[in-house]
């Protein structure tokens, strides 16, 4: 004679049965619009399945957000996939800029003269052998934000720097 023994249902089984409908729903949605790329590599199949799962889960979240905001969802699953694919294809494209168009690079005036040499910061602030020397040819002061012309040049750096009562670019340049 057989006797029955009452066994409590394990917690894991209860959890599975409670959420089983969500898994079945996900599988049915994936089955409708599955990526139809065949591959002999097992890891590619897993990748495509994970990609399908991600797309379906994002669509389900989109529907939940629309429901929470009392908005009718605009996209079906097929429309969601189509819009997602279109958006991903547009990632690398350059969008036209708004506003007044700027001049193309070809029309910009390029400097015919090479840029003047500027010493490194270590040489500039070493405080040795920097003497202002007077030169016959005038040049523009190279200190930032100074627009003046001067005949004074640093003997070591060989750049023009103002050195008068109103502009002390020479001292400022060699101390910063």
From TrEMBL:
PiggyBac transposable element-derived protein domain mapped to chain residues: 7-59
Region named Disordered: 97-119
Composition skew (Polar residues), residue ranges: 103-118
Name of protein: PiggyBac transposable element-derived protein 2
Natural source organism: Sipha flava (yellow sugarcane aphid)
């Amino acid at each position: 004679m057989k006797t029955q023994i009452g066994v409590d249902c394990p917690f894991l089984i209860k959890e599975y049965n409670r959420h089983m409908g969500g898994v079945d729903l996900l599988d049915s949605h994936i089955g409708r619009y599955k990526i139809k790329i065949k591959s002999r590599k097992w890891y590619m199949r897993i990748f495509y399945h994970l990609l399908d799962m991600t797309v379906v889960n994002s669509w389900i979240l989109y529907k939940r957000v629309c429901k929470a905001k009392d908005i009718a969802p605009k996209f079906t699953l097929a429309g969601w996939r189509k819009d997602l694919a279109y958006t991903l294809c547009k990632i690398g494209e350059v969008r036209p800029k708004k506003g007044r168009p700027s001049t193309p690079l070809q029309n910009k005036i390029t400097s015919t003269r090479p840029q003047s040499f500027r010493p490194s910061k270590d040489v500039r602030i070493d405080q040795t052998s920097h003497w202002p020397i007077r030169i016959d040819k005038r040049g523009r002061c190279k200190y930032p934000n100074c627009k003046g012309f001067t005949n004074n040049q640093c003997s070591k750096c060989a750049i023009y720097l103002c050195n008068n009562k109103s502009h002390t670019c020479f001292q400022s340049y060699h101390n910063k």
